[in-house]
Amino acid sequence: MTEASDPGSDSDFDFDFDLLCELTEASGVPGYEDQVREVVRRELEAATDRVRTDAMGNVVGTVEGDSDYTVAVAAHMDEIGFMVKHVDDDGFLRLDALGGWDPRVLRAQRVRVHAADGDLTGVIGSVPPHTLSAEDREKDDSVERVFVDLGTTDPEAVADRVSVGDLVTMEQSTVRMGDAVTGKALDDRVCVLAMLETARRLDDPAVTVQFCATTQEEVGLRGATALGGDVDPDLAVALDVTVASDVPDVDDDRQVTRLGEGTAIKLKDSSVITNPKVHRRMRAVAEDEGIAHQFEVLPAGGTDTAGFQNSHGATPVGAISVPTRYLHTVTETANGDDVDATVDLLTAFLDTETGEHDYTL
Predict the structure, then answer these.
(1) Confidence of residue 156 (pLDDT cuts 50, 70, 90)
(2) Does 166 carry a binding-site annotation?
(3) Residue 76, marked binder
(4) pLDDT above 90: residue 137
(5) Residue range(s) defining the domain that contains residue 89
(6) I need a labelling partner for 182 at 20 to 30 A (CA). Which of 3, 4, 125, 156 fits?
(7) What is the CATH number of the domain that holds 166?
(8) 119 annotated as ligand-binding
């Protein structure tokens, strides 16, 4: 465990918190997942029989089983971020979003600009309320109005170092907070962690398991869709975070999941309806093993689950989700016991997969 934990917390996690920090604090916007990919490759090389990457940057670690029946387990590496689209005459940067941002959360955030000769610290600027006109106060926030201030009075120095196409990510550390962890990019690095932890624990499976760290999920499930055709599994299980809006002023029916009530077995989101036989077996495994769980019916949002379902013919799919508050912000928050439950359920599900279950409907 890290020494930088919340002094008010006495909760212990079974998962590797230091690895979670390394994964979440690495930068990796869609299509440029290089930093986090290096970490994933290192961990998979230690835990699987062989590792490969493809032209989209997906990483696949294979654990050979006793049969040719193949299960793909997928979690995406990319995080939402930005690409520089313009450097103005005063040295401010204008951005194009990579993934879905709520512009309300962007004001006054610190960012990293990944320039060719090294990272630069910047802040997303905001106009003080003291000088806002009545008209300005009524304007809705939008990503198009966001600008990055690099803190220099020398615009030429900015133009010399920053180019159109440079990447921008949020600056935030991952810390423990009570029974939870909070930071940037838990979507979906906390699930990458769960996948890696499971790869470490899986011992002599009856089936071959392909642990897939995918790319470009935040811009349309692109890596998983391509990988579904390449891997062509007999069964696919995706891991992602899901909405936990169990906070004040949100009605119960809109909360989706709640922190501390266990891992979430996905029934549907806007991109997929999971195979009923798969999610029923997940529930049975959770009940048999005494693993805390809940069910996820997500009204909006897609996951890599859909990328595998029909990219190379019909494939039975299931999904396990980590309930997470404040998604697509720099303070995404997940309960540590829910993360442990996710690892426990995935491990137990794979340990009991024989390749003989009939998932046809």
Answers:
(1) very high
(2) no
(3) yes
(4) no
(5) 81-170
(6) 125
(7) 2.40.30.40
(8) no
